[in-house]
Amino acid sequence: MLLQTDQEKAVHTISNSQRGLSQQTPPLDFEAVAVHNIVFQAENPEPLVLGVQYNASSSATFRLIVTDVNEAPQFSQQVYQAKVSEDVAKGTKVGNVTAKDPEGASTLGGISENPGLGKREAGQIAPQPDYCRSQLRAGEFRSYSLRGDKRGWLKIDPVTGEIFSVAPLDREAESLYRVQVVATEVGGSSLSSVAQFHLTLVDVNDNPPRLAKEYTGLFFCHPPKAPESLIFEATDDDQQSFRGRHFTFSLGSETLQKDWEVSKINGTHASLSTKHTGFEERVYHIPVRINDGGRPPLEGTVSLP
């Protein structure tokens, strides 16, 4: 019979006429409880003598010592998420990850002797680090690294877990940039664990308007019997607002206004029209300015043949 234990449901007994067997039920955890003290008492199925109580000689104390097994570093979460503007400067901190030693060592990022390090917020430019590292036992120190940084946009401080931009970011290329962060135990078993880092890029107006497609091979019959026109569409590569795109259109040169005119149809379409029929038979290249009205406003000049 099991009388008591220092942890509920740590072990249980299996009765046997010749011997007592003990068996653990949950997995043992050195970090939670390193030593279990368990008291057993032996009893006959029937009392030996009526009215006689069992004494201390009928019980025994069993001490179960749990030995430590080295485990891989553990991240505080499996998926880290951050958001920054796509136009942040190189060297800007964009995120931070943290892993700890299950054996009880301090978290990575807390071993610098300079208390000011490791406290920068996302979006701030990091100074050049000059870490004063503590003396650590073999297997205690964990090094951070990145995996899957296919565009070479990011770097991670191997000590603090801070993540920085090292190249221009481009939302039009990757609006959600995913990489893996690896925490590796150094100096011991080299055990490692992996977490995900997702960086959302916020759009800025950095792409000038352009034609939505190529307009080639367009022609008007000569001699024209009446003014002619063609409809064209504009677009850009920036994120569209909930109101949609609102481009404005104008001729690229004032000298063209006596022969041509541009008329807006809607936020993305306009028409280029002739004002008269007295044109020579030749190829005309008409520049058209398209303004996106963004912040800051960007303008592109296209040519319609």
From TrEMBL:
GO molecular function, one term: calcium ion binding
Keywords (A to Z) from UniProt: Calcium, Membrane, Repeat
Compositionally biased intervals (Polar residues): 13-23
Protein's GO biological process: adherens junction organization; calcium-dependent cell-cell adhesion via plasma membrane cell adhesion molecules; cell migration; cell morphogenesis; cell-cell adhesion mediated by cadherin; cell-cell junction assembly; homophilic cell adhesion via plasma membrane adhesion molecules
Pfam families the UniProt entry points to: Cadherin
Ranges where the record places region Disordered: 1-23, 96-125
InterPro entries named in the record: Cadherin (IPR039808), Cadherin-like_dom (IPR002126), Cadherin-like_sf (IPR015919), Cadherin_CS (IPR020894)
UniProt xrefs under CDD domains: Cadherin_repeat
Domain Cadherin: 13-75, 76-211
Biased composition (Basic and acidic residues): 1-11
Cellular component GO terms held in the UniProt record: adherens junction; catenin complex
Keyword Iron-sulfur carried by entry: no
Subcellular location: Membrane
SUPFAM superfamilies the UniProt entry points to: Cadherin-like
Protein name: Cadherin domain-containing protein
Organism (species): Eschrichtius robustus (California gray whale)
